[in-house]
Automatic annotation (TrEMBL):
Gene3D superfamilies: Nucleotide-binding domain of ferredoxin-NADP reductase (FNR) module, Translation factors. It holds the Pfam family NAD_binding_1. This is Oxidoreductase. Coiled coil: none annotated. The keyword Zinc does not apply. PROSITE patterns: FAD_FR (PS51384). The chain crosses the membrane at residues 12-33, 45-64, 85-106, 126-148, 160-178, 190-210. GO terms for molecular function: 2 iron, 2 sulfur cluster binding; flavin adenine dinucleotide binding; metal ion binding; oxidoreductase activity. The keyword RNA-binding does not apply. It comes from Kibdelosporangium phytohabitans. InterPro entries: FAD-bd_FR_type, Fe3_Rdtase_TM_dom, FNR_nucleotide-bd, MRET, OxRdtase_FAD/NAD-bd, Riboflavin_synthase-like_b-brl. Its cofactor is FAD.
């Protein structure tokens, strides 16, 4: 019988993050109070907004630094979600910083806000850099909005997002040159240097040093490319000492295949088989240029992989038995989890038609070997069972898995399907800590 940990890694990591942020909010408030009031109340409000904005920007960097300890416990989905909401806070705080500072100085000088902004940019060192940083952050925020994000290719969005790092550097230089709490207090200077150094260091470690070190150590190469169907292909990858690569079933890598014209393209794909220490396998559907080009990758091609990432693993189990729910090509991490999860497992595989059931033969063989139960649920979105229930409705789920409330549930598929399953699970009273969902819109 599998022994499950009573410690919930996700709750521990989330509590730790909020505690660190809360402690820094309190310290920044003290630094602001010690700096004393400004000549105009609006300037004081603007400075406090700027300090909190700087703190949240540093916190954002930590959220997307891809630090293994955090990522394994919260997952990139949740960290990216926190980053997104924190980003809205940064935008509003920086807007407030600009508006209140300019309005305050305009009150003191008797000039208009626009004229005062031009004067500050031309006469106060660091202000022009702050304006450039503000424009960059607003641009990145605009392209990160859901409407714009859906219209942009992942590579385009990612390239634009990199300008955030330039904005961070410009904003910090502005703070060094003209921040009141920074200029007048040795302790404040030490704090802000440590904060920004730690945040940027976390990014450097998680997104540069660790990937370079792992790729140098493991020297990944394509071993074989196997078509699974007209639109789906599996890529087998080998390397050195793969047994030391800390990858788990359910996780994904961000892959770069070092071929002419494609080495710059980074695409996230889940492992479609549990790591065995000898090879890695990804399976992808041709939904874009990156995934479509995999069919033409040659054996022997060097691979640069960032990861493993994701908290969609058996690490977060709370029950002895499990339900795995997959939709479309979202079956890839589910298939890998089926190899690793112990206890009794039920698999629900939702597809539009049986021809879309990727890796179905492997799932059947695994289920038979593991004593698991596999239900294939084909049909259009409006399809219903014999009792008139939609295939992923609470009624049908309860009929297929009678003890669903006493199982961990792992869900991976297109966002609409995942949302439908989550609603059904809530209606059935499945506790939140037993539900583990992976968003598959990015990695598809």
């Amino acid at each position: 019988m599998t022994t499950l940990s009573l410690t919930r890694p996700r709750a521990l990591a989330r509590t730790g993050l909020y505690a660190v942020l809360g402690a820094n909010v309190a310290l920044v408030t003290v630094l602001f109070a010690e700096a004393g009031p400004s000549a105009d109340p609006l300037i004081s409000i603007g400075r406090l907004s700027g300090m909190f904005g700087a703190l949240l920007m540093a916190f954002q960097l930590v959220l997307v630094a891809r630090l293994p300890w955090l990522d394994r416990r919260l997952g990139m989905d949740r960290l990216t979600g926190l980053h997104r909401w924190t980003g809205f806070g940064v935008l509003w705080l920086l807007v407030g910083h600009l508006v209140f500072i300019v309005s305050g100085y305009a009150d003191l000088s008797g000039s208009g806000p626009v004229g005062e902004l031009v004067t500050l940019a031309g006469t106060t060192e660091g202000v022009l850099r702050a304006i450039v940083a503000f424009v960059l952050i607003m641009t990145v925020g605009a392209v990160s909005a859901r409407v714009a994000r859906r219209k942009l290719a992942y590579e385009t969005w990612h390239f634009i997002h990199l300008y955030t790092y330039l904005a961070v550097i410009l904003a910090f230089s502005h703070q060094i040159l003209s921040g009141s709490s920074f200029v007048d207090s040795p302790f404040a200077r030490a704090y802000w240097w440590a904060l920004w150094g730690g945040a940027l260091g976390a990014v450097l470690l998680g997104r540069v040093i660790l990937p370079l070190w792992r790729n140098s150590r493991h020297r990944l190469r394509v071993a074989a490319v196997v078509p699974e169907s007209d639109q789906v292909v599996s890529v087998y990858i080998t390397g050195r000492d793969l047994g030391r690569l800390p990858a788990k079933a359910g996780q994904f890598f961000i892959w770069r295949f070092m071929t002419k014209g494609r080495w710059w393209a980074a695409n996230p794909f889940s492992l479609s088989a549990a790591p065995d220490g000898k090879s890695l396998r990804l399976t992808a559907k041709a939904l874009g240029d990156g995934s479509a080009s995999l069919r033409h990758v040659k054996p022997g091609t060097r691979v640069f992989a960032e990861g493993p990432y994701g908290a969609f693993t058996a690490m977060h189990r709370t029950k002895q038995n499990a339900l795995l729910v997959a939709g479309g090509v979202g079956v890839t991490p589910i298939r890998a989890l089926l190899e690793e999860i112990r206890g009794h497992v039920v698999v629900l595989y939702r597809v539009n038609n049986q021809d879309d059931a990727v890796l179905l033969r492997e799932l059947l063989e695994l289920a038979r070997a593991r004593g698991a139960v596999l239900h294939l649920l084909p049909g259009p979105v409006t399809a219903r069972d014999a009792d008139g229930n939609q295939l992923l409705s609470p009624g049908n789920l309860a009929g297929l898995v009678g003890d669903i409330a006493d199982r961990d549930v792992f869900v991976c598929g297109p966002p609409p399907m995942t949302a439908a399953v989550m609603r059904s699970l809530r209606d059935l009273g499945v506790p939140r800590e037993q539900i583990h969902a992976e968003r598959f819109s990015l990695a598809s």
